[in-house]
Amino acid sequence: MATTVNPDLRKERENASFVPEKITNFLYGGPERVQKKRELASLALNDPDYHHEDLNFMSREQQYETCLKKSLLMTTKIKQLKIDAVDEHFYRSAVTGPSPDPLGLHVGMFLPTLYGQATQEQKEKWLNLAENYVIIGTYAQTEMGHGTFLRGLETTATFDPKTQEFILNTPTLTASKWWPGGLGKTSNYCVLMAQLYIQGKSYGPHPFMVQIRSLQDHKPLPGVTVGDIGPKFGYDVIDNGFLALRNVRIPRENMLMKHSKVAPDGTYVKPPSSKLAYGTMVFVRATIVNDSAMALSIATTIAIRYSCVRRQSEMKPGHPEPQVLDYVTQQYKLFPYLAAAYAFWLTGQTMMSVYMTSSSRISKGDISVLPELHALSAGLKALSSWVANVGMEECRLACGGHGYSHASGLPRLYANLTPGATYEGENTVMMLQTARYLMKSYNQSLQGEKLAGSVAYLSGVQPVPAAGRTRNMLDLGALCDAFRHRAARLVHEAAMQLRNERQAGKDQPDAWNAASVDLVKAAMAHSQYFVVKNFAERLTDSRLDSSISAVLTRLCQLHALHGLVTNSGDFLEDGYLTGSDIRQARRHINALMAKLRPDAVALVDAFDFPDGILNSILGRYDGNVYQHLLEWAKASPLNKNDLAARGSNYEGLMKRHKIHTKNLESVTEALRSHGVEVKVIQKHEYTPEKVNWADVIMSAGGDGTFLMAASHILT
Amino acid sequence: MATTVNPDLRKERENASFVPEKITNFLYGGPERVQKKRELASLALNDPDYHHEDLNFMSREQQYETCLKKSLLMTTKIKQLKIDAVDEHFYRSAVTGPSPDPLGLHVGMFLPTLYGQATQEQKEKWLNLAENYVIIGTYAQTEMGHGTFLRGLETTATFDPKTQEFILNTPTLTASKWWPGGLGKTSNYCVLMAQLYIQGKSYGPHPFMVQIRSLQDHKPLPGVTVGDIGPKFGYDVIDNGFLALRNVRIPRENMLMKHSKVAPDGTYVKPPSSKLAYGTMVFVRATIVNDSAMALSIATTIAIRYSCVRRQSEMKPGHPEPQVLDYVTQQYKLFPYLAAAYAFWLTGQTMMSVYMTSSSRISKGDISVLPELHALSAGLKALSSWVANVGMEECRLACGGHGYSHASGLPRLYANLTPGATYEGENTVMMLQTARYLMKSYNQSLQGEKLAGSVAYLSGVQPVPAAGRTRNMLDLGALCDAFRHRAARLVHEAAMQLRNERQAGKDQPDAWNAASVDLVKAAMAHSQYFVVKNFAERLTDSRLDSSISAVLTRLCQLHALHGLVTNSGDFLEDGYLTGSDIRQARRHINALMAKLRPDAVALVDAFDFPDGILNSILGRYDGNVYQHLLEWAKASPLNKNDLAARGSNYEGLMKRHKIHTKNLESVTEALRSHGVEVKVIQKHEYTPEKVNWADVIMSAGGDGTFLMAASHILT
Fold first, then answer.
1. Would I find Lipid biosynthesis among this entry's keywords (chains A, B) (predicted)?
2. Which chain B residues are within 8 Å of A321, Cβ to Cβ?
3. What is the structure's pLDDT at B147?
4. Which of A254, B290, B590, B663 pairs as cysteine with A209 (C-beta 3.0–4.6 A)?
């Protein structure tokens, strides 16, 4: 096995215009953080207690068992090693890579819900057990028939004042809880979202702490039907589950009562604000933006490194086959997603920091910032996860045939990360939430209110510039202006469309529905503007030295220009840009790609993913792709024996065959010429279709192997 | 289990404006063909000899064995039932569904290669054996390091005049054959593409018939290394393989010599035309266009039926949750792909019929039609498979969470059909081949030559209409004109770009590369124009009755208008269309979708896929989605026991646990309160990090089950 770096990749690294480490420091918030990240990743990846098995060679059941074991071990190690909560994700992501974690819902949803929604007494009762994995829980909200629309949930929790209990029920088939991760096999508890009923009156969905399995033998408790929902596109390692409850009683104290309360006499106490839960949503959506950035950065790392190792076709007669990345069409597939990876990486950071800043205000009761934050996070979650979906697949296809192999790591990456477009709010619904806020703001602005924050620009649509004005399409200010103008115009157009539908006689819901394609388009434009502007703003960071500021500026320009030419109609429609601007933009894209070409490998190296996280033979840091492809293939379970198919299933088929009498002579002769013994036993007529067949015995390998040649089999 | 049809779906069918059967007849070429298709599908789907197992619950090895057995059985049944060659695909597609067939390469490539490239003597020697599955073969062309670029193949076949043999070698790692279906385990023969060498001179790639495994015990022959290349995104049932040859000798007569020949003295005889192989390529690409149509028609059938069963959110306060298909955003996701399914279905038919017409001319030696046919088929293959890729995923995501489950059938459909963008010529390479023909034709036209066929329109770019001219954007003639103008303009622009690059000093290959993004764009526009025009032309079929001609016209309009607004910049850039045209187009799309809404289910019913082919719980004809989701989930192998994890792997872990001494008291107390026996054995210091731990024994179920609560495990 070669241990040196592939010479093509080595050359790429030698020719880069900057030191990747500088960008790595920029991306992770300074050299100390990078150092910490590497230490923890190395601790995880070099720990022999983790076997880091190749999940691609396992059945789903084996994958679940393997990863559950790994996850339990990780939990213990994090405590043992006293890893700080701030650094924990560095360690976790090195252990699991971009794969989900079977205990992910326990850590990421169940515990945080207890922290955020349990009273002090409830925390004392459950937190210690949950933090020590005596209780393992999940968050059971989604039902078979109900997803994004929370109020549609059917599960009921009916208060029984006599016994001071809630009676939990799954009244219909579609009310079955469906999808919660860890519910299928792993959890013994869950936070159940159910419609609260007190004396026949409904109070909407509330969270309840419910034990579903015995702590002694892990069997479902009486009244509980629970199981795995079956295999999915990805998430093989996760036991997403279903749950039906039949008259399951829990004490009144099991409703999580930090916000809403039910008193012993059945009095219901409302939460101080219904918007408080928005904070968590903003946080979760910011993590999805980060996931999207990770998805794209991993995918482009794999595809760009491989495109420098792979050589294909003949660009010039007699010359050697060029590196695939030298094809401009290949650059045009990959570089825009490389730029998008950077753009979303920085977007996610901004969102997290806005969330952190706002959190303290929110915790002090100032929730004025929440609607804007909520609307912005919804749009950015949707935009980034959509782009990541398309981008991961573009990267996979850009790797040609080998991208289709699990050896590339790309199919598994896609299958595991594509749910980001669906969970935590389906993307179209998210965009329409953003649109609702945009319409509200736009109307406020029409009524003379001054807008602030991310929607301030809606106060005035810029005038379309006079014809003949020339524009420098590389200027980031001009590009931000163009995106701002487009967003403002599309918000205006959507509002006009809404008004027209109303004037044509539709009621508000029907008008909203009729205008929804335009509304989504406006929300998308608003979100893209935010991403472009944020990227440009981050480049004004004074800590950036000139070598990396130059290359990052090129990425930002490419990101904006690519968004511009792929949506060129939006900029041309009202004449804001001209055909010649668009042509200029295309030429700039070509020139930028040529400038980025020698830096491409350094730009993905800067993401700093160790091979153990990439899990890709095509994306290996050392570029020794082909040797490892073969090694990997040899380990495929199908290669355990030389035979096409063997075992008891086939034994009965091996001995006796039927051959069409028309071919009998030539087939038996040919078989004999190949050294196969053939003995004709009996010729007979096969009744239904009056075909003449002969029973024949053929020799097979003495060890009961299946002779592939003998395939004219009737049974 | 409900046997009646879901009432929502029933209502949809009652309200349709036409009888689906009429469109079914149109799509399959008349009622007789439909009748035949249904007979054969029913024969396959109701035959108890096929078990029609759910592959989703199997390991890859099980899937391969199951489907290989099924495929062998199918082969026998086709003979038994005397199914006509013309009808065979009806039967095959009912048995395998949209899944690949482990013997697919034998039937689809190995046998046709023998038919087309073997001499009469060679046919006599091998055909009988191959047709009777004594020989099972594959087509081994692609190598680990070489795909679409055929001339880059490294495998060698060196003629040895002394022994009258070819010596076959895999000179490097990257020369290993890689990817051929059926090579990994199933085949005992293959057609090997290898560089022919005679007396040190290379003559390019040629086909050779090579035995790779013993017919007696199926073991690889001496000098042959062969195996499975490992798991992939999809194609689980296929043993795509690798093959390396070391001094393997085959008789001179094993080169397939119908076209090129090597005489006993080593004299090489050239084939009459190097373009002859193009015919097969055209055929194969036409089948990929058909596959793309099938992919989209299956995906839209599933998503549209499910969108009528699924209810979600509250459009109007107090009203019931609407069917998801009533959301205009959902229509905007699905209807354009429904229209594309029809568009490509008709494109594939036209391509096949052009191919058939041309074949007879080609077989008579007239190959003048081949370059155009080749260029057209390359572009249409690429366009249709790209659109199908995006469309299948759009349909999956439109099914929300349940689309992600294998119960939907959509993940498997996507994983099995996405390779269409890569195999038989990588799509970007295909588009550039089309572009090469377009540039050649454009230059001929500049030199005054008259162009014919699909490129005739390049002879003159239409003038941009005067401002102020109003256009009826629903008129199919006007829409075809717009697509023609766009294609002609983009071909012209790409040619200008090429000329500019040349004038700036680049040599031809570099100029081609620099202009390649524009060239792909031009080829795409050309292909889209063909599809739109072909759709419009098919509507002039006099056999169409008015009810179906009305609905098909709406689909055609939607297809064209959607292509227009998603590429609006291309039409706006030179002022051919105006902003107001585009706005008009958007309004028309909304109106068309509203008109298509009541016909949507009938339009997918018309594709006439039985449930056994759809393999989707969401897409069931009877719409009883939720009941069957639960049934299906219960059959998941993870539900075989109630326990999170059990078996010998865990036994060692169950008994003894370590608990952090800090938590010892509260954890043990809590466990006891839950009825778990706990005994503390020993407290001790864990050295590396000085953490204090206690060894604890906990009770587990008496049958050796793993107690999930006991998760603080060290090993």
1. no
2. 149, 152
3. 86
4. A254
